[in-house]
Write a structure and sequence with these properties.
By secondary structure, the chain is an alpha/beta fold. 28% of the residues lie in helices and 20% in strands. Strand 13 and strand 14 form a beta hairpin. The two termini are 44 Å apart.
Length: 344
């Protein structure tokens, strides 16, 4: 259980063997009258490994006493998440051999990382968290990009990049977030966290992943003459045509990524980052195939910071053309202003 993590095995001593002190619980009840019972499930399947979960005595009593809160689906997800964590983080029993570097990407206001350790639990932060600050007012955006690239190079230098672990806690302008992901690439292990302002924490809410609700406009037919492609992400808010009206030559081809109800509360689970990043990567690869002579892509983004980092990771500098990023400024005559241009 993610909020427990009590050791369920007592180590062997000089005189005694290892002892399992946890209790084997049933996801679907062992009996027809038990919690989460399913009379159609055979006795054999009820006692199969897939239907069993090892818990401490307190957690066992809680899940069986509160079956409404601990459904079959929730218990299976808890078990799957824990097993995935064990495979990736615990090559030996105990804490992982390699902790995580923590990086706070911040704008004008400092990022509070007091809950970062709890967000990573049961993993841990190996060193004191680092901070990378980006000014919001009047920045030289290309200099911001160069500074982020230099810092990423510094962080990743030495050792195997594919074994490197970085936890990113971002509250910064969109362009800085995309730039960070672009320079990190998808080679190191990167975990991204959302700051939940109402609870003032980086810890993800304990809930199942919502259904995949992203809708992407269709890209049909190759266009050898296309010189520019626009990608628009409507996640936290709708990007209106009015806000884009002052921009020229950016919508020769346009691809929209939408969720049914854009909101600042839309991102509630790390799986949403994963599947959106996967869909974006496929769209980027498709755009390279369909519009091979495009010299620039335009990225307009209204969404949470961690997904902006993930989008940057999906941009392959050896395949993509130059990518022009934009910053949004409320109540200005031209809300979207050019910021960083990522050099493909």
């Amino acid at each position: 259980m993610p909020d427990c993590r009590i050791e369920l095995i007592a180590d062997a001593t000089e005189y005694d063997p290892i002892v399992i002190i946890g209790e084997i619980a049933h996801v679907v009840a062992a009996s027809d009258g038990g919690p989460r019972a399913d009379a159609d499930l055979s006795i054999t399947d009820r006692n199969d490994y897939e239907n069993l979960i090892l818990l401490c005595q307190n957690c066992h009593a809680r899940i069986d006493g509160q079956p409404g809160a601990y459904s079959v689906a929730r218990l299976k997800e808890i078990k799957e998440v824990h097993e995935a964590w064990v495979r990736s983080s615990l090559p030996e029993r105990g804490r992982s051999r390699t902790g995580w570097r923590a990086l706070g990407l911040e704008g004008d206001h400092p990022v509070d990382l007091s809950t970062a350790e709890a967000a990573l639990a049961p993993d841990f932060i190996a060193e004191a968290p680092e901070h990378l600050r980006v000014a919001l007012d009047g920045p030289d955006w290309q200099e911001v990009d160069r500074a982020i690239g230099a810092r990423v190079t510094e962080i990743l230098q030495g050792g195997d990049i594919f074994d490197f672990r970085l936890a990113v806690f971002a509250l910064a302008p969109v362009s800085a977030c995309v730039s960070l992901g672009y320079h990190l690439t998808n080679r190191p292990h990167v975990r991204l966290f959302q700051y939940h302002r109402d609870d003032r924490t980086w810890v993800w809410p304990r809930q199942t992943a919502p259904a995949q609700d992203l809708v992407i406009s269709v890209m049909d037919g190759a266009n050898q003459g296309c010189r520019s492609v626009s990608f628009l992400f409507h996640l936290s808010a709708e990007i209106t045509d009015t806000a884009l009206s002052g921009l020229r030559n950016v919508h020769e081809q346009r691809i929209d990524f939408r969720v049914p109800r854009p909101s600042t509360a839309w991102l509630q689970h790390p799986d949403q980052i994963k599947w959106l990043a996967s869909e974006a990567r496929q769209a980027f690869e498709r755009a390279v195939q369909l519009y091979p002579n495009a010299t620039v892509w335009h990225l307009f983004y209204a969404g949470p910071a961690p997904i902006a980092v993930a989008l940057g990771q999906q941009m392959n500098p050896t395949m993509c053309p130059q990518i022009q990023l934009y910053e949004y400024r409320h109540r200005e005559e031209r809300p979207y202003r050019e910021s960083i241009r990522l050099r493909g």
